[in-house]
Write a structure and sequence with these properties.
Length: 264
């Protein structure tokens, strides 16, 4: 069944209004119309089975038939703080980061960033990246679209990390502290921020700023990864171990089901 995202404000009194590019996709590409059934998600975890009531040039009106929780989201919130890279590398990060399960992606401008954006360009890029995240969320059947922030500075991103969240920073200068070391901690954090430098790497001053904020520098191994690879690799490791990509939490759940006499 086709899936579409709307904002919570577009769901009112048992009816849903779909606008924007999805109107053309529904009417022209999918050739759907009155009476057809679609799935609508509000981006906050709610899912609706809805019947199309009418299709006009700029709006699709639907009646809610059934409401429920969409599910399918990781048990831990992971924000990827990604140094802005040039070309289409950021598009890749937005798409694959969404598929892996990132909760939010914050593009940051660093001291060694090659790309410099004016305020207008920053807003335009953010809008483009958010659209990529929406399409990726549809494709991989997520119930929540990751929030893509307007590009900010490294320091401002550090300042926005909640006190209760854990911060990690893959860093080529770190050789001892491995990602698996942080997974040995007994308490699984409710939220984790992954800080990734740009193509030119993390400046020593930025490294010190991050450490003062309690961000843990880690190594991802002996090979130097590109900026667009490092963030996705770290995201996958975190969501494997603490999320729903088949890591330790899933193994514990599987074992408990087996011991209870439930077998697949």
């Amino acid at each position: 069944m086709p899936r579409f995202f709307v904002s919570p404000e577009q769901v009112k009194s048992g009816h849903i209004t779909i606008s924007g590019p999805d109107v053309r996709h529904i009417s022209k590409v999918l050739r759907m119309g009155t009476g057809d059934i679609i799935t609508v998600l509000d981006g906050d975890g709610k899912a609706y089975e809805a019947r199309i009531e009418s299709v006009t040039k700029g709006k699709v009106s639907c009646e809610v038939l059934e409401q429920g929780q969409a599910g399918g989201e990781p048990p831990i919130r992971v924000t990827l703080v990604q140094g802005i890279s040039k070309g289409e590398k950021m598009d890749l990060v937005m798409q694959k980061g969404t598929e892996l399960g990132a909760t939010a992606i914050i593009p940051v401008i660093c001291q060694r960033s090659v790309v410099k954006l004016s305020s207008t360009k920053a807003t335009e890029r953010r809008d483009r990246w958010q659209r990529i995240a929406v399409e990726a969320a549809k494709q991989c059947r997520r119930s929540v679209v990751p929030r893509v922030a307007t590009p900010t500075t490294w320091w401002e991103a550090l300042d926005d990390v909640p006190a209760e969240a854990m911060g990690v920073m893959p860093y080529e200068g770190e050789t001892e502290q491995k990602m698996r070391n942080i997974f040995n901690k007994k308490d699984v954090p409710s939220e984790i921020f992954i800080f990734i430098g740009p193509e030119g790497g993390i400046h020593p001053e930025e490294f010190e700023q991050a450490q003062r904020k309690g961000v843990i520098p880690v190594t991802l191994g002996p090979r130097i990864l590109r900026t667009e690879t490092a963030g996705l690799a770290a995201l996958a490791l975190v969501l494997y171990e603490w999320g729903d990509l088949g890591g330790a939490l899933n193994e514990k759940k599987d074992r408990s089901l087996h011991y209870a006499g439930v077998q697949g």
